[in-house]
Amino acid sequence: MGYLLDDKRKKPAPKIGELIKKGVITQSQALDWLETIYEIRFFEDKVFELLGQNIIKGASHLYAGQEAVATGATAAIAEGDVIGSTHRGHGHCGAIGNKYAKDEESRQRHWNRMMAELMGRQTGYCGGRGGSMHIADVKIGNLGSTGIVGGNIPTAVGAALAEKYKKTGKIALSFFGDGSTNTGSFHESMNMASVLKVPLVAVIENNLYGMSVPFSSSAVEGAGCASNIENVAERAAAYGVPAMIVDGQDVVAVFLAVKEAAEYARSKCEMVMIEAKTYRWYGHSRSDPRAYRTRDEEKEWRSRDPVTVLSDKLLKEGLATRDELDAIRDKAEATIEAATQFGLDSAWPDVADLARDVYVVESYAENVIEAEKASAANALKATAAFDEAMAAIQAKTKKERTEKARAKIADEFGMNVLLMKDALIEAQAEEMRRDSNVIIEGEDVGLYGGAYGATKGLLDEFGEDRVIDTAISEAAIVGAAVGAAIRGLRPIAELMYVDFITIATDQLMHNGAFNRYMFGGHARVPMVVRTEGGVGRCIAAHHSKSLEPWLVNVPGLYVVMPSTPYDAKGLLKAAIRSDNPVVFIEHKATYGQMGAVPAEEYIIPLGVADVKREGSDVTIVTYSRQV
Questions:
Q1: Nearest to residue 415, comparing CAs of 454, 452, 377, 453?
Q2: Is 543 a catalytic residue?
Q3: Which of 141, 371, 462, 591 is most exposed, with the fewest beta carbons within 10 Å of its own?
Q4: Closest CA to 74 of 249, 201, 231
Q5: Bridge partners, residue 245, by sequence
Q6: Contact, 458 vs 428, CB < 8 A?
């Protein structure tokens, strides 16, 4: 379709009765929307109260006023679709949980777990570890929320990529606010989603303010502005995708817009952008005095409260009486009161479990560990024999001498002698043949074969669906790998230099490494970020850093640095099979290094040291080029 901006506000919204007659919705669905809106509202009002009593602690960003967006959007998608949430995510979690609640008991249990999570209790969705800003339920496709503005968008793109690759017919719905649209992750993600043609619906909840700064204008002198355009949806033109603007206070309008967008994304496998104009009743957080907006403005928006808008429609169309609407309100309030009591009655997490689920436990059978030790010792001997042969064999050219030495090692040891880069290619190719869920994505990985040749030939064998060239967008590359991993793939994301990982640190650390722990052990992120680092080739300071001392201090992250081709192949295969996020760093000066590699299948267990030389006086522990 390309870029087309459809402002739905300029068209009369269909009546609820008309939608019921056409079979688009049922009357009970419309009434349930009101109940969900009320539940989110009462939940947020209660959270505000409990924050003041220090029962809920820390920062909490309330969704009151924006309930129609989450309610209408989640109602419009299918079960099995995926959502990505934000730091203001209580409404998203509340609405998606209601969608999957099949009876009143499970609905109450859902709100119980939400309130308990915000109180930091063991019975919460994440065992009390996520709290207000990091609540998730990955089992039903709620990828969770993040405290970094815009930080959730790349993972939703990756989730959409996974659904496209697996041909599930599912889509990803990414919620984010207007403040996110001025971040680099927004642009990187929207561009990636557009170029890769993934089934993504991007829902921008424009509540007019990024904390205190207006998106485009304010009546308050000195308030500033974040953008020179009024409508975020206009930015869809830069990505060549269709966009809509919708009244975010009208749940019916949101439902219809997202339903249309979801059908388009599902059938065309392309992104759609929706801007929902909405408003938050509270400040950015509880301490916010809202000095950047006028009370007249607040009064005007409150006249279009999502509760009022939907209630008035139901009354005017004769679909409910005032008494019935009051009963829905009272029932919702009772649900949240019961959830509050449940949270207060729940136990605190056991301090003995403090470090549980930082990692997925890596375990290997003893015979695998022992077999690898023997294989490593044999490879060490074979490599030494190769070096001796290279020094002794007479030949006209280095190539001829190398081939003769290789043949000698193959004959004597049954091993191949490979360059480091070729060992990396073999590892990736073998794992891609072994597991169809292994994909590669990143800069220059396809036709070019990687900046250092470590993906050469893989595009020819596995095709563009599995070896995916991307734009220079490190945050989106790593974030998409996180989302794809959570949704069942085993992505290998390549960054050209480890220096560039600084641009992707939010995604690598906050989403990749932390999600399992913060989500109570319910998430697995089996991804590898391949990169290279170190000095030795005079490629300038910003292409020569050794950042492993930083990375090894990130809880939840494995860091691997091979020293030989044997190590490179075996460790990379183990990293790809791991259920933990792994940063795999190759030293740029080792790509031309040659060494013996077994012809048969092997992996090197992660976390098990290799003894390169035995002695009696001193123990030296090192890694990579220093070995």
A1: 377
A2: yes
A3: 371
A4: 201
A5: 7, 275
A6: yes
Structure tokens at 33: 């929307």
C-alpha closest to that of 444 among 428, 467, 423? 467
The residues, ordered by sequence, that sit 6+ positions from 349 with a Cβ below 8 Å of its Cβ are 120, 121, 122, 127, 128, 129
Round to whole Å and give the CA distance between 429 and 573: 10
Backbone torsion region of residue 85, taken as left when φ is above 0, otherwise alpha when ψ lies between -120 and 50, otherwise beta: beta
Residue in 464, 465, 495 with CA at minimum distance from that of residue 478: 495
Residue 576: pLDDT band by 50, 70, 90 thresholds?
very high
What would the two tokens of residue 454 be? 């470590």
Give the amino acid at 266.
Answer: R
**Identity at 620, one-letter amino acid code:** I
Residues 605 and 425 sit within 8 Å (Cβ to Cβ): no
**Lookup result for tokens 């308990």:** 116
Question: Cβ-count burial of 618 within 10 angstroms (0-12 exposed, 13-18 middle, 19+ buried)?
Answer: exposed
Q: What is the mean pLDDT of residues 447-475?
A: 95
Q: Are 534 and 589 in contact (CB under 8 A)?
A: yes
Return the exposure string of 197-225: e unless at least 16 CB atoms fall within 10 Å of the residue's CB, then b.
Answer: bbbbbbbbbbbbbbebbbbeebeeeebee
Contact 365, 140 (CB under 8 A): no
- Name, in order, each residue with C-beta under 8 angstroms of 619's C-beta and a sequence gap of 6 or more: none
b/e for 50-65, b at 16 or more Cβ within 10 A?
A: bbeeebbeeebbbbbb
Please compute the mean of the pLDDT values over residues 37-66 and round it to a whole number. Answer: 95
Which run of H or E residues covers position 210? strand 209-210
What's residue 373's pLDDT? 92
Q: Could you give phi then psi for residue 28, rounded to 5 degrees?
A: -65, -30
296 burial via Cβ count (<10 Å: 0-12, 13-18, 19+): exposed
Two tokens, residue 508: 């690598």
Identify the H or E element spanning 266: helix 251-268
Does an H or E element contain 274, and which?
A: strand 272-277
Q: SS3 for 332?
A: helix
- Average pLDDT (488-517) is 95
Cα–Cα distance, 86 to 175 (Å, whole number)? 7
Distance CA 183, CA 285 (A): 20
- Report the distance separating Cα 1 and Cα 225, nearest Å: 32
Considering the candidates 90, 110, 510, 543, report the single residue annotated as catalytic. 543
Kindly tell me the burial class for residue 166, based on how many C-beta atoms sit within 10 Å of its own C-beta (0-12, 13-18, 19 or more): middle
Per the DSSP assignment, residues forming a β-bridge with 533 are: 587
Q: What is the H or E stretch that residue 35 is in?
A: helix 27-52
Contact residues for 421 (Cβ-Cβ < 8 A; gap 6+): 452, 453, 454, 456, 591, 592
**% residues pLDDT > 70 (the chain):** 100
- Mind listing the pLDDT tens digit for each residue in 141-155? 999 898 899 999 999
Report, in angstroms and rounded to the nearest whole number, the Rg of the chain calculated over CA atoms: 28
